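Kindly draft a polypeptide, keeping tokens residue-aligned:

***
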Amino acid sequence: MIADGGGTLTAVIEATGLERRFGDIVAVDGIDLRVDSGEIFGFLGPNGAGKSTVVRILTTLLRPTAGSASVGGFDLATRPGDIRRLIGVALQDAAIDPLMTGRELIRLQAVLHGISRNAVRTRGPELLERVGLTGAADRRVATYSGGMRRRLDLALALVHEPEILFLDEPTTGLDPTSRQALWEEVRRLNGEHGTTVFLTTQYLEEADQLADRIAIIDQGRLVREGTPTELKATVGAPTLRVEVGRDNVGTARTVLAEFGSERPALEGRAAIGLLDGAARVADVVRALDAAGVPLVHLELDAPSLDDVFADATGRRLEGATDQV
């Protein structure tokens, strides 16, 4: 991370009491944020939590109902033009002309940012190569797959070499190979160029893999914030999950309550934060057997970001159900 002369981190995104209402609906409910220069900042939460609304506010596409914010040292309310020149934005629902080719769109984006033709002759092919679209550069975007469009959108956001990059759920709908390729490009941008990345995601693994710090948002409010390690440490004990069938869940929960506090689980299962971890698994199995509860499946997992979310909200993130 970039530090100022005094050795302290420099904030490039700051928000205080940020709020956005749509009639009676409160999409963003008075959040405070700070993102330091050179960070990959993960904004994690389920669909409808307010992630995209926050991004639209910080990228000057939507006015806040209340609160204040600055990006790159420029005030959101008074200097939106300066902010737009400083940032790159790849939105989840970005509109890309399907009748143009990838190369044509890169050139158009360069013109919009006032980049010379000579510069774009070099930069355009470099960007297309970086996102793996050299072979498709002269094809119409209408022929691109979803993953190819997302990678092109990233290239368009990087045309003017922004200091701050906003990525709004960049891997939604991508296959695992495309997702990994985009992760690598984000790491490279951050590592080689020091680009600050504000990444919204609903994927636990994505936030865990990429982010230096994470803020978890739910129903418009921040519920937790910290490094992945710090957040997992707040949960404490590992999660023990047992599958026992619907008829035995009540008894299983009663038995498990002696070994740790209850955690959210899918129907037909029970879960606790198992005090003393693996050392007590055998005791749990014996206790369930003594209570006449047939055990279908048991697993013990180290604290995860999903456990953090569940601890903060009392429910699991959508998409994490294979873990509960």
